[in-house]
Known about the structure:
By secondary structure, the chain is mostly helical. The protein folds into 3 domains: 6-59, no CATH class; 70-114; 128-152, no CATH class. Helix content is 54%, strand content 0%. Helix 1 (6-14) runs antiparallel to helix 2 and helix 4 (86-93) crosses helix 5 (97-106). 9% of the residues are buried.
Amino acid sequence: xxxxxxxxxxxxxxxxxxxxxxxxxxxxxxxxxxxxxxxxxxxxxxxxxxxxxxxxxxxxxxxxxxxxxxxxxxxxxxxxxxxxxxxxxxxxxxxxxxxxxxxxxxxxxxxxxxxxxxxxxxxxxxxxxxxxxxxxxxxxxxxxxxxxxxxx
Length: 152
């Protein structure tokens, strides 16, 4: 057995096997200690998460995250005024629908209630109203504690 990928090596070690021979590791091996196994599991999980993130990234449109040029913004406005839908504009500009809607909303050409995607152009989800009010995590926790203790 000769694993080629780092994840395969980690998985073999986690299973208590020599990654090159497939033979069981010695019972007194450092790799059989709980803290070492936890570290190996964490490393394997991080590698898997990185792989999944790269797969998702590969499926995104080509221009995701790239700055908007003045010419592209002008084309976006012209397309909208010509009756193109935000979805068609997203495909044309090789950006996500959310990016197109956010840009149009920021420019005042689309109202928040006209969006198909959730959240405003700030990127904050409507599911998190406390974040939109500027109250951070610590403020929410303190408010929760105050509410439980009966203090204002």
